[in-house]
Amino acid sequence: MMRRLLFGFILAVMAVSAVAQMLMQPSAESDELFAAGVDLYNAGKYREAIPLFAKSDSLDKAQLDSTSNRRDYSSMWLASCYYKLGDTLTAADIDANYYRFAPVDRRLTVKSDSLLQIGMEYFNQGDYAKAAEYLTKCAEIEKSVLGESHIFYGNSLNFITLCYYYLGNSNSAILFGKKGLTIYEKVLGKEHPNYATSLSNLAGYNSDIGNYAEAIRLGTEALQIQEKVLGKEHPDYVMSLANLAIINAEISNSDATRYCVEATEALSGIVKRTFADLTARERNLFWDKYKAWFERTIHLIAYDMPSDSLAENGYNGALLAKGLLLNSEVELSTLLKESGDEEVAGIYNDLKNLRLQINKLYEMPVAERPLDADSLERVAQGLERQLVQRSKAYGDYTANLVIDWRQVRQKLGDSDMAVEFVSFPMRNDSVMYAAYCLRKGMALPKMVPLFEERQLTSMDKRLYLSSPMLYNLIWKPLEKEMKGVTTVYFAPSGELYNLPIENLPIDGSTYNSDLRSYRRLSSTRQLALRRDGVEVEKAAVYGGLKYDTDTVTLANDSHKYRTAEPVQWSSRAVADSLNLRDGVYELPATKIEAEDIDKALETARIDTKLYTDTIGTEASFKALSGSEVNALHIATHGFYWTEREATQLDGLAFLNTDMPTVVQE
User: Fold this and answer.
1) What pLDDT digit, counting tens, does each position of 536-566 carry?
2) How far is 259 from 301, CA to CA, in rounded Å?
3) How many domains are contained in the chain?
């Protein structure tokens, strides 16, 4: 029952679906069966009431939307009948949460249920003030009709609590949260997951108003209950660990380190275990729950409380988080391709072609789509589910998702250094950049704070290639760590993805690339997974592309790379911003580079395809999927500005040079 499910943990958004049929009521036939069943139940005739509630429940499940909170009353009464007859197992199977409680007559809660549904709809829309208004009215009716100690009333109070929390009114959240907690203690008892969840949320609200001692007390009590009732691997227990780490870090309490490290290790385990059974879409939704911990929180704590343990923890978290969703796709794809199973290969190719169909459909206006994209999505989900299950016969594709920093260190040479850049929001609305550094001889990774993003974005972009300002911001703080280093393997973050940080001026005549080699990676985890002796067999090289290619040429080109799909190409305007400005339309030097690389690869007898001019299009790039290309080079020199940025610059003045040959090349 939607209303019976309690919210999750601190900062967690309630997973309540949009209410499509919020005010639908059970049918007249169901109501008659329900009423007759209630009469028999109240007369102690539980066995006679069972078939009536079973039929009513069957009708409700068939006729009411799954989000309707009018849908599960009959199952509550049905479970209670079995419980009264001593069949606890059947009762728990029907309604595990409420079979022990006195069931609620749905005829008394028509108005309150409607108010609850409306309130939850406002909650989903982010209108927490309106949500609180309707939920408060709902709670008042429940208190009057069901009593001030009823579980429904307690649940509504906790929903109201969340509304006030999201409105920034932590004091009111604490007030309503305490009332809800009192009801849970009385009805459920202290050793119950919902009671522990309420404690954990109250800890968060107290932390928000600076009442850290109380927050730690409540959070610790919640953690102890969850460990006893749920176990240390349960997500609720792990999130309570994370919450305690955050609260303790607010006051620089050393306990934050222990909680932070334990939470990261446990959450990494949950990700690895859970991903193995999920499709790509499910992995996306699952990762949304936990990514803030790996992408922000652990780095913020490591920055606030510098220590070897937290630097180690932060680096491990970054190794997991960067490119996790893409990495999981690649690992699964590799495992399936190496299986040698022709049936699996057939399913994989069917899925790949179906995804191409779906992508083409999404590129077209809804009214012009010849097929229903949602229906194809469901078919694709089914195929992917088959592949996920079949993959288990050939190995664990999640084995390489959780990489430890020691595995990276093992692959480093004496003069190598790994640098994992991270960027994370601070409490003052600023974004901080830092680097996790690792060398072969280091006992542990080291976190080096670098700069705030506003220092970078406020810099005159015309000075990027003519001044050491950018180098001083990014690399100079790492000079001590880079002493004796000849090769730096680095993975950028945030704005650093858009900057040529491997080739920055140090002074008037020296660039950082003159001093050592810099190799850009998506994540330094790639070092741990590097296979020694892997040979390139097939390559694709792009360079000298025509950025202002007309749409007719693009449409014609797309037909060269058709896939098995019924959707016809729909010619549409190209919105690339390079077409919207009077600037550089092509980069001639990239064609020279691409041709030189193509010749070198051919000399090495590597099967190579060169894409230049109008041949190197988006369609040609997409067609590489499944072609077994294991080396790809795209020559892309220069900067890319948004229209707003471009209008603020005078043509190519950002290069700050009078040498036309430099501009041309």
Assistant:
1) 678 898 888 776 656 556 556 555 554 444 3
2) 11
3) 4
